[in-house]
Amino acid sequence: MQTMFALVWNNEVRKLFCQSQRVMRVIWVAAMVGSLGALVFLVDPDDAQPHRILVDTDADTDDVFALFYLLKQDSTRFDLQAITINANGWSEAGHAINHVYDILFMMGRDDIPVGVGGEGGILPNGTILPNVGGFQPIIDQGMSTAGECRYRQAIPVAQRGRLDVNSNYGLRKAFLPQGSRRYTPLQQPTAQQVMIDAISSGPITVFLMGAHTNFAIFLMSNPHLKKNVKHVYAMGGSVRPNCPKINSSDSSGECSDIGNLYPQDSNPYAEFNIFSDPFAAYKVLHFGIPVTLIPLDATNTIPLSKSFFMEFERRQNTYEAKYSFQALKIIRDTWLSDAFHEQYCMWDSFLVGVALSIIRNSHNLYGENEFAEMQYMNITVVTSNEPYGALDGSNPLITGYSTPRFNVQKNGVHSGHVQMGMQDPFCLQKGKGKCQDGYTKEGTGEDAVRVLVATKAKPNHDNRSILGREFYKSFLHVINSPERTGRFDIRTQYPFHREFLYKPDFGKKIRGKPVVFDMDMSAGDFLALLYLLKLPVELINLKGILISSTGWATPATIDVVYDILHMMARDDIPVGLGEAFAVGQANPSFAAIGDCKYSKAIPHGSGGYLDSDTLYGLARDLPRSPRRYTTENSVKFGDPRDTDNPGLRQPSAQEVWKSIVESLDPGSKITILTNGPLTNLAQIILSENTSSLIQGVYIVGGHTGYVYDNSEGNVFTVPSNKYAEFNMFLDPLAAKEVFTSSVDIRLVPLQMQRRVSSFSTILNRMNATTQTPEVVFAQHLLSRLWRLQQEHYRYHHMDIFLGEILGAAILAGNPHLNQTFTLKPLKVLADGDITKIGEIVIDEEKGKQVTILENFNPETYYDHFVRVLGDHRQSAVLGSFHEQERMWNSPPEKMNFVHNQQV
Ligand SMILES: [Ca+2]
Ligand SMILES: [Ca+2]
């Protein structure tokens, strides 16, 4: 009663006050209390303090727009307290975290904490340990960050998927400045810790812009902090949308495919954010916190219309507007169909717009706001499919437990079939997909929750404007506002910023053996690359680099390769990006997505992708190359249309290989060194007429040691598999292809790599040698790997990467290494049981004769490697990012670098 009274008065008085005074720290409300007629002063707590906000984001491009829109609000009204990264959605943790740090640096907001990852797990009994990283959906979370991809596989890995999101279509490093914050292993605040800190220190509103994993884990493990969460606003789900396209509705007029997964043949109901972790979304919805949902129903009605796009193009008055528009433009230019303006919608930015407007108008009981029509609906999230209580092995909450995990009911809504992947036969029915996992479904039963739902974007009040929606206007106004604007981009941050392509001048030197290096961007591969670049060009002529994206790093990490080449003045070396999937893993009906039967062995968190993708936090010490991954493309290569700079296009591994073959001198042949899975090599061998141009292949990997001493392999995340080595395991069918081909193979197997895995030995030698920039960088990397190995069990496997350098040294063939080889008939086991996959066996009848490194002198190896890196010849032109910054702070004539070409 008293509340209602205050509310009415609030409303009236605020109207008067707001006209004269926009920002008020405290509003004193004069209220007449009953018949006493006394004048009482009340404090309105909502207006007394800024609204504290926490954002959980998957760092997709529309999340970037949303962040800008929020950061540009007056922080005395809307105060962004913390950001957490959703690591099982559209971006990879290592790229996302540095992307968000760069945005905050540009916006002058290094004060906002950002949380990512964490190594905590969930015990079989359902106990949630601290700092669960959110790399897995809750139902699949065990004690490791490696694991299956039942939902994650719906998201493309490469183009038009995580690769593009991680790099923001190539713009991230072309545009954003780089501050001092970055991901550093074991020092990075975890997502859970950042949530706990922000939420425990006062009332807060939570914006969810990705999967709900982090926030659901937070609620489940910190129920006592629920009282501080005032409201949750989430973009996601699909309740009763208007059909975005007429032809997708059937004769009844209802949408036949209301979700947005693609392909939709297994589940036409789900939207990506909710599908990425349905159980988490269910938990959030049913936790008893008020939830407002911005589903596809509403976002479908606010697409990136042509008129909005054109108006945005005209109005780019701030760095954040420029960054956002450039991203939109490259997305449009590379859109597969001509329907970009209908299909690309304002998702997360619309969420923020609607949420802030609702908060501003909090006196309205029904969520009235400027931008969206709202309606209360009773909703639940489908987490499993009927019949309930089915024990078909698909449900990790039930299968194998006498008491189901998290106390779910044996015959309840969580007990049915859980979608196993995009090709789950249970979900595939002729005509129409059957599974509803992640569907935000209306219901009348007790299992539905009353939720405020945005149903439609409101039209622009000003009907003379070309902008058809009220929010278009607000978005352009806010992002172009001169207040709280970005300070600079990478170009304007420095007075003399300039970009060069460095190309070496080897004069009349005779070039040595043509070599192609195929790497998967694991830590040791970068050291092997530095070593190859330091070998005299008369000995080794490094013609190109191929990236196997099926190993320890995700494809967007290709930028680190470009940066190393730039540092070493080798911007002339082409870099080709390989296939996203191991052989047989791409979805047969939609090759952009695929399964993770082998890649599931790589941890997502510490010691895995998170660390490789950031080169253990050290990638940012490298100078920034003008060459980088980009989505620029051209019709010439089969793309839908030319972009503005088609020449910048990222070549594929196959294209680079072909161009090298075409440039070969008559009679010469190429030697290939592979330091990762054999995905690219298999493709090369299968391609026409080129395998005869291969002199031989040095393969780092494979385990043959067990034949002598029963020693085990190294695929530690698949304990049942005892003898395989990662590079064979990660693409066994490719390995099989190579090991049944006619190509001459020299194998540098695991047991030989293990002989050179002493961090102390190599670091001691490095301390005693000339400190070239490349020695300094290698020292930083190696000492970090060593320290991590000593400090945390998650890093027990760091010597895997130290041993990787050996292949390059064997290829160089220094006679003092005393290397000896033996010939054995080998076969790679590629099919059948997961316990055997990737194993190498000796098969006298069917095996291929392979030359195996049998012995060498490890002491000489360490000496040799360190001496090559410490040689002042063929050394770096730009030792570090700091050195590059010094260059950008000095006028050009004072610098004496040799550069061939300004870009
Ligand atoms: Ca998002
Ligand atoms: Ca490797």
From TrEMBL:
By its UniProt entry, which Pfam families does this protein fall under? IU_nuc_hydro
- Residues annotated as transmembrane: 23-43
Its name, as the record gives it, is Uncharacterized protein LOC111277257 isoform X1
Q: Would you indicate the residue range of the signal peptide?
A: none
The record's listing under InterPro entries reads:
Inosine/uridine_hydrolase_dom (IPR001910), Ribo_hydro-like (IPR036452)
* Domain Inosine/uridine-preferring nucleoside hydrolase: start-end pairs: 53-386, 515-862
**A GO MF label:** hydrolase activity, hydrolyzing N-glycosyl compounds
Mind listing the UniProt keywords for this protein, alphabetically? Membrane, Transmembrane, Transmembrane helix
Reading the lineage from the top rank, the first entry is Eukaryota
Q: Gene name?
A: LOC111277257
Assigned protein family: Belongs to the IUNH family.
Region of interest (Disordered), ranges? 625-650
